[in-house]
Structures are given as C-alpha cells and as structure tokens.
What does this fold into?
Amino acid sequence: MTTPHGNPNADDFDWTAAENEVADAEVVDLDAARSRRGTTAPQVDPNSDDTEPDEDETGPAAAVMVDSIAAQRRPRFTLAGFRDATRVPIVPSWLRSAREFGGNLAWATGFGLHALAYHGVRVPKYGVKLAVRAPRGFACMCWGYNRWLWDLEGEPVRQSVVRAAIDKPEEAKMYDRLTNKRDRRVRWRGMVTLALIAALVAAVGALLLAPTLAQWSTLAAVLVLCGIVGAPADKPLLDTAVVRRDAAPLTSVEVFTALAALNIKGINDAIRRGDNGKRWFTAPISRENGTGWHAEVELPRGVTASTVVDKREELAAALTRPLGCVWPEVNAEVHPGMLTLFVADKDLSKSKQGPWPLLKTGTVNLFKPFAFGTDPRGRVVTITLMFASLIIGSIPRMGKTFALRLALLGACLDPRSWVLAFDLKGTGDLRPLEPVAHRYRAGDDEEDIEYGIAAMREMRAELRRRTKVIRELPADLCPENKVTDELASNRKLGLHPIVIGVDECQVWFEHPKYGDEFEEHCTDLIKRGPAAGIMLGLGTQRPDDKSLPTGISANAVLRFCLKVMGYRENDMVLGQSMFKNGIKATMFARRDRGIGYLAGEGDDPVITRTFKIDNPTAKAIVARARTLREQAGNITGHAAGHTITTDAVRRDTILEDTLAVMSDTDPKLWSTVIVKRLAALRPDVYDGFTADQLREALKPHGVKTGQVWGSDPDTGESGNRKGITRAHLQDALTRRDRNGGSGGRK
It folds into this structure.
C-alpha cells in the first residue's frame, strides 16, 4: 500500500483502508512504559538553551537523549583537555633555530645589497628623469599654492548657491555667509604668503653667501622635490629591482569547487544532499612558513583521503595550479578521511632549494639526525642512520643514486665511521667517496662481485666479533646491549659505526652463482647489524621480490621511495599496506626528481626533496671529510691503499683446495684443522681464513658442516666438533662439473 510520502499522487491514498488496519492497534502510554523501565526521559525543548533536566524530571537513572543538545555539547574546560592540548611555542621557530635565523638574515642582507647596487647603477638615469620632470613639478606646486591662496576649492559651492538664489531668494543669505568666510580665509592666507615670501628672500640671500657645496646641495634638493612632484602617476621614478610573482591565495570555496570537480562518488552524493562544504574545514586555511597555504579538510563520511591523493593531477587542474605546487596527503593520525592539503607558491621541482647545511662546515654524529632534504613547506627533513638500515627505490632517472650518495656523504662526515661503497651500476656515481671508503668497488664484472663477497664476509665476521665484545662488556657500560655514542668513540673496543651503501643491489641478489650468499649476508646484517653499529643501505631501480628479498625489505627501518609505477613496488620499498593507507609514491611525476616519501624517521612518512649534491660538490665534501679523518687517525682499508684478496672466495678453487688438504686417510676433519691446512697450502690466499668463512664458501655448493669425530694434531685434542666430510666434497665437485662450473646454483 502506498503512502502520501511515497506516492506523488497523495489524493489516491485510501485513508479508510488505513484506518481499518489500525483499528485494533494497542495504544501505548509512553510515560508508563518509561516508568516500568526505571527511567524517566527529561523533556528538553530543542529551541531552548536550558538543556539541563529539572530536579523533578530526573530519577535514579535519568537519561539524556543521544541527539539532544546536552549530549552533543562538548566539555568546556577540563583538566584532561588542557593536559592533552598542544602548546604553541612561546618563541617562534625562526628565532629558536640559529640556522633558520641566519638564513633569513643572510637572505635579507643579500636582498638589500642587491637593491642598493641595482639603484646605485641607475643614479645618473634617475638624475636625468628628475631634471626633466622638475619644471612640471614646479608648475604643479605654484598652481596648487595659488588654488589654496584664493580658496578656489570652495568656488563650485559658492557658484551652486548663486544659481539656487535665482529661484530661492533666501539662499542669498547663505551666499553672503560663504563669501565672508572666503574673504577671511583669503586675508589670512595672504598674510601667510607674505611671511613665506619674506622668509624665502632671506633664505635666498643666505644661500648666496653660503659655501658652494651648500648651494649645490640645496639646488639638488629643490630639483629632487620638484621632480618627485612632477612625476606622472603611471611612471614612477625608480625602476623595479625585484619582480614579484605572487600566487593567488587559496580559499575554502576554491578547495570545495576543486574537490567537487574530481567526480568522487561520496563527494558528489554529499553535494547533491545540499552540503556546501563549510563544515569540511576543521581550521582556517593558513599560510605555512611563507611558502604556501595549508588546509585541513575532513571529507564527507565514507570518502577516504587516499582517493583524492590518487587524483592529484586532476586536483591540480581543478585548482588551476602547477602539479608541483599541489601536495595532498592523508592525515592518518585523525582518520583516513582527513585530508591535509598543501598548495605551494612555487613548483617544488623548480623552486630554488637552499644548500645542504653541511656543505662547507660541520660534522655528523651518526647517533643524531642530520639534514637529508626539505618537505614541500620548506622545512628541513632529517634522517638518523644509527640503528637503522636504509632502502631506496624508484624507477630509473629519479634521483635514487644521488639520495644514497647523500646518506653516505653524511656518514663520511662522522670521522669515527667506516664507509663501504659498492657502485654496481658501474658508472662511477659513488666514486667521490673513494678517498674515505674503507671498501670501494664500481662495476659488476666477476672480480667486482668476488670483491663484494669478500667484503660482506668480512662484515659478517666483524658482526660476530662485535656481538662478542658487546656481550662481554659490563652492564654499566652497555646497559642496553647495543653500541652507544660513548662506546663508538672508544677506539680500543672497535665499535665505531659502519655504513655500507650498495647501489643497484639487485645485481648481487640475482647473481647466478653468489646470489644466495649475498642475500644471506645482507639479511643477517640488516637484522642484527644495527644493534652492533653496522648499517646497510640498499638502492634499486627494480623494487620486486628478487631485487629486495622479503627478509631484507621487511626488516629495514628507513625507507625512501621516489616515483614508482605500481602499488607492489610502492609497498616493497615503503612497507606493507602503505599504498592502501594513502602513502603513494605513484603520484609523483617524471619531473619530480629527487622527491619521494621518506618513512621510518618519524611517526608518518614525509614527502621529501633531497638536497642535490653534484659530483664536484661531493668531491669537495669528501676532501673535507678526509681531512677530518686524517686528524682522527681513521684512514683505513681502500682509502689507505689496502685491499682484500678475492682468491679465497673463488668458487672454482675452494672445492679442489679443500679436497687437497683432506687425504684418503682423513675422511672427516674439523673445520679449524682444514683452515690451518689451507693457510699452509696457499698462504697468500687463505692467510686469516676462518672456519666461518670456509662454511660460507662451501655452502653454495651444497656442502654443509656437521658434527664429526676428529682430532687436532697440533694440540692433541679430540672429540666431536663442526667439520667437513670428504665424500660430501667429492659429490659437490661432481655436481659442479656436471653443471658446467656453475656451482650449486644454476
């Protein structure tokens, strides 16, 4: 049955049938029903400000209707509210930051000197313009004084009274009063004029007796005064030293109109219901650091801010702003529907960025943050490398290598640290770091890969040494069982920071022979290394499961993702579900080089534009870093001219050499005995070779260590220890030869 509200033709509704249907219905006394429930609902007048129930209306369990004014009223002043409130800094940030204050002061000084030099060069031009305009200015001054003297400003009023007196004789009295006032005014001004003429004659006489410099100075002042008065309104005297291009202000109407143009269903539905968007803005749109406008927008219910982020290009078009000026983000701290919109005055990719604060002076303490870039608002973004491994990913040519090199440059400026740089792309982008690098290699040839294996084995051995040192330190020196700033500065302990940077790391992990071992080393270092002061930084232009194995990508703390093409690559670099939560590096354009999301340093990912350091500048920074290291006595490894041998890690000799030191009478030997015999067999190759290195070298061939019964002829000891079975070596050698020398991995 239709109802009058559901049927536009209300006259067709059968009222008689409806009455018959409810004839037998029971009438319920609402007050009695409430009493039976033990509650009495207060009667609140929705049009009244008195929302408190009267005493006689409240029972032991008086209820307030959930939609009443009392239920919706917010607490006014509560201690908890003030405790959780954010305190506004007493001193503004630009005064608290010496760097920011110094930067502003330097900019203001440069601006003033530029304007002074600009106008100083044009002083002759301004003199000619003043001389040309002076006669006109003198005539204007004389004409203006004449109008003042004879009160010509009041002449139109007096004439209008004369014309009115023709029809109204009584207006003649008004004319007489006006004329008398004018006569008195002219007489007084005439006396002032006579006094001014006398003063002027006296001044001219005194000027004729004055020195020549005073005469010319007075003449110049009169010329300047007359020239300024005679200047046309549309032709100013001074040229423009600085051309400003002020961006149009951002308004709530403009933002609402732009969001409506995105064709998002939830927004369209809200607008159709009559929502004008006034309640979307939780705070007024404000200027942010003088670089743009900041708006907080609470989108209609059911609309996620990530939907708007996906339409960044359409949003920029709707706002009629360059794409590089519009930066929408999800404010996940509030809820997924809260949009933070920053609209910059200038395109971020084209705007001038300040120099790296550490460009010419200063050092880095890797236990503390150092400058890495700036956000769209122009604020400095920092990273802290200590206790955090780093992953950088993007498509090619977006600034990935420059970002990795910037992080390594920061590490170089800590004189205590070791820096290992591996440029697997082979173009030499990390070559400026070579003068301070403990280990350095560029290229992906076989010898370069073997050098990398040897270096990573060295780091694994260093990791084990460090864990032992930390384990044996007293609790008062190492309470948290990890490296501290003080321990890192104690050279006797050897717990200085170590930062390893690998560009195009997929070359290591996808290598047909050594990929598994590289993955094992990097996974261990990225999991256990940070607590021991060893940090790993990986960069790749192919963020996928092969380029970034799960054990590595899931354990990195710092992540910097420049432009990528899909959600999988986005989450491989930034972390699982980041794309779904609105952190989408897919929104960056091809021209947004050096701009990406930095995650892991703070609570939320931040859009960051890294400081751009080119090769010559990087070399100058490294030269300063080397000087600091020389003063600290920390020139080691490659920088000191030392290298590591790669012969011991060659897969085509390790099996033969191990078999050679195990005779038929030694079917099983301890690993410690084998490495001693290897060192005796090839001292130049295996000197310092450890049992752990032997195990890692044989693992890709499928040879595993196990408990074997044996003895050490040198010490006479015997028993069960980790060792190798000769039969396993022979089987591995057979498999390798059958596979064409590809080892245990084909």
Q: What stands out?
A: The chain has five domains: 10-72, 122-229, 252-344, 370-640, 647-738. The first strand starts at residue 286 and ends at 288. The chain is about 45% helix and 10% strand. The domain at 370-640 is CATH 3.40.50.300 (Rossmann fold).
